[in-house]
Design goal:
Layout lengths: L21 E11 L2 E11 L6 E8 L5 E9 L2 E4 L1 E4 H13 L4 E6 L6 E9 L4 E11 L1 E2 L5 E5 L14 E2 L6 E9 L4 E6 L7 E2 L6 E5 L4 E2 L4 E7 L6 E5 L15 E6 L5 H5 L6 E7 L7 H16 L5 E7 L3 E3 L5 E2 L2 H12 L11 H8 L9 E7 L6 H10 L4 E8 L5 H10 L4 E4 L5 H12 L4 E9 L4 E5 L13 E9 L6 E10 L2 E10 L9 H21 L2 H14 L6 E6 L11 E4 L4 E2 L5 E7 L2 H6 L7
Parallel strand pairs: 1-13, 12-35, 21-22, 21-25, 25-26, 26-27
Antiparallel strand pairs: 1-2, 2-9, 3-8, 3-36, 4-5, 4-9, 6-33, 7-8, 7-33, 10-11, 11-18, 13-16, 13-17, 14-18, 15-16, 19-20, 20-30, 22-23, 22-24, 28-31, 29-30, 31-32, 34-36
């Protein structure tokens, strides 16, 4: 397994042309305030006459932190442990070559929202169940709903040598149950899929459960919208650490998660609403064909109609090449708006591949308009494989260009969409249909019209005997109405006072602003460690960004150490589990069979590796042409 896996592959075939039969997916979600713990169980069967090694490539939200991996075969369970990635690969190879069953789970090197699961040498007719657990922050919508999305589709990401064949859908069912616990009452839960009734578990309506209707075919993303009463109010959760963890470590001490929603002075915000240069970058690649390009056009048209008079704008379309409506940004008038809208209505998904770097570099190289801060709006499904390179470019220009993104269609890359917005000090929206479109568009435009917040600082105040280690990277963006989650490690013991305070200072249009929140230092009884793991994820992501810029091995070592300590995934570690039962060494080579890149969407991408004798290999050469 030392060779890299082609993530563009879609579908898993046996030598009979059959797909590996994934039978079912069971998902259990436990929501705690603004975060969730998600447990997924994948069940499948090897219906081959030969041992099969399958590699599933599947999506997780970019905001997720994988924290558990286990596999059960023939009533025997093996639990994965986090190891440095190269060490984990060597352990996996050694196990397979000696006839043992092994599982390897690792993050893609190019896109952090894609994971590859190597399920080892599965005997003929054998069944297996793989359990994955991850924690995630829930994103806030324009109407204050919290959005949870379970991605069903991993679109094949564009690469320059992409060759397409028709895609296939993998037939399996999904069961989904959700339990919600909140410090404030739960109002309702909505979904794009059919749900059973919402059942409250207490009279205060702070606990509830809901399930997906039976028989759901996992052919689209499952989106849940959770509504709380007084959702804009700040909240705090203090979570106890592990008693057997290393003293003084992140996992041993309590961790606090604060949810803040800053309020800006109205007169300051209104004074900036007529300034700005708006650059719209539209994905016209082939993968946007059909409903995606229609949704993108509808979104862009709504934005064009809503721009303030006196601003400037331009529109770029991109695919394998790019072109702009105007040679340079023009003033927004009735005439220029109508001319642009006519061109937008004619935009089609006819520009081949998704190469976004070239137009981005061109836009970043343009001269600025005085007193008109540049705002970049990107519309794409995110089917690229150079995500990290794109994010590095956006980060480099983040002080002069704010970036707002719209993920178009089912399976849009969360790593690219949310990553560009985060690095570009903007916000991300996901458009999967016309429902709630206007609300999402107007929220992004409202944020873009707000002045940039600068000089952001956070001050923690705790009683004598305690201290605070800030875990959240320094905030570089704030918008009115947008929630910010802050994590901090609490060390030491309180002298008796059980209250702490966090103060948020920032400057808005040269006006100093202060927001403050007091919180209880007593840890909650729930020791699920979701807060700790999300805090560890925040630190790991910051260190990974530092390592990409500095190439410092000591930073990489810090990532590995924290990843192993917290039991969460990173770009430098992997989950490895080896079944210790008796096994016979594999005879003959491990023969790898890959499937051509698919067009359109697929549920799981995969490749197949068979344990064969040399003569069997010759008999099965026809498999490569499937």
């Amino acid at each position: 397994m030392q060779s890299s896996i082609n993530m563009n592959i879609c579908g898993l075939l046996t030598e009979k042309g059959q797909e590996v039969p994934l039978k079912s997916v069971e998902v259990d979600v436990k929501v705690k305030g603004h975060i969730a713990t998600v447990t997924s169980v994948l069940r499948y069967v090897n219906e081959e006459k030969l041992p099969v090694e399958a590699v599933f490539v599947f999506p997780l939200p970019a905001e997720a932190s994988l924290c558990h991996f286990s596999a059960k075969i023939a009533n025997e369970e093996v639990v994965g442990e986090v190891q440095e990635k190269q060490k984990a690969r060597e352990m996996y190879d050694d196990a397979i070559s000696s006839g043992k069953r092994a599982f390897l789970l690792e993050e893609s090197g190019e896109s952090p929202d894609v994971f590859q699961l190597c399920v080892g040498s599965l005997p003929p007719k054998e069944s297996a169940a793989v359990t994955l657990i991850y924690v995630i922050e829930l994103t806030a919508e324009a109407d204050h709903a919290l959005r949870f999305c379970l991605p069903a589709v991993l679109n094949p990401r564009y690469g320059p040598t992409n060759i397409g064949v028709p895609s296939r859908l993998v037939p399996y069912t999904l069961s989904l149950s959700v339990v919600i616990t909140s410090p404030i009452p739960i109002s309702k839960v909505e979904s794009n899929c059919s749900l059973g009734p919402l059942t409250y578990l207490n009279t205060a309506h702070t606990q509830a459960k809901v399930s997906l209707s039976p028989g759901h075919k996992f052919d689209r993303d499952v989106e849940l919208l959770l509504y709380y009463q007084d959702a804009h109010q700040p909240t705090a959760i203090v979570e106890a650490g592990l008693k057997n963890a290393k003293p003084g470590s992140l996992m041993a001490d309590p961790v606090v998660m604060l949810s803040l929603c800053p309020e800006f002075p109205a007169e300051v915000v209104s004074s900036c609403r007529k300034r700005g240069e708006f650059i719209f970058l539209m994905d016209q690649s082939g993968s946007m064909a059909g409903s995606s390009i229609r949704s993108a056009r509808e979104t862009l048209l709504l934005l064009l109609k809503s721009l303030p008079l006196g601003c400037y704008f331009n529109i770029f379309g991109f695919g394998s090449f790019f072109q702009s409506f105007f040679t340079e940004s023009v003033e927004y008038t009735q005439e220029t708006m109508e001319k642009a809208m006519e061109k937008v209505e004619a935009m089609e998904a006819n520009m081949q591949g998704t190469e976004i770097l070239k137009p981005l570099k061109h836009i970043y190289g343009q001269a600025y308009l005085p007193n008109h801060p540049r705002q970049l709006f990107v519309f794409t499904d995110g089917e690229v494989w150079n995500t990290k390179e794109i994010l590095d470019l956006v980060r480099t220009h983040s002080l002069s260009h704010r970036c707002f993104t719209f993920g178009i269609g089912k399976g849009a890359s969360t790593a690219l969409i949310t990553g560009m917005a985060k690095e570009g000090r903007g916000t991300a929206q996901f458009i999967t249909g016309s429902d709630r479109l206007q609300l999402k568009v107007m929220q992004s435009l409202s944020f873009a019209l707000q002045p940039s917040v600068v000089d952001i600082s956070v001050k923690w105040t705790v009683p004598d005997g305690m201290s605070v280690i800030t875990l959240t990277p320094p905030l570089n963006v704030l918008f009115q109405g947008q929630r910010a989650l802050l994590y901090a490690q609490l060390t030491g013991q309180s002298s008796g006072n059980n209250e702490g305070t966090v103060t948020l200072h920032y400057s808005l249009a040269e006006n100093p602003v202060t927001n403050q929140l007091s919180f209880c230092l007593k840890p909650s009884e729930d020791t699920g460690l979701a807060v700790h793991r999300l805090a560890a994820r925040a630190v790991i992501q910051s260190l990974e960004k530092e390592e990409r810029q500095s190439k410092d091995d000591s930073v990489r070592e810090k990532v590995v150490e924290l990843s192993v300590q917290a039991g969460v995934s990173s770009s430098f570690t992997a989950f490895i589990s080896v079944h210790k039962g008796s096994g016979q060494p594999v005879k003959g080579p491990l023969v790898k069979r890959t499937v051509p890149v698919a067009q359109g969407s697929c549920t799981f991408s995969s490749m197949i590796i068979l344990c064969l004798e040399d003569e069997d290999y010759l008999n099965l050469l026809g498999l490569a042409s499937l």
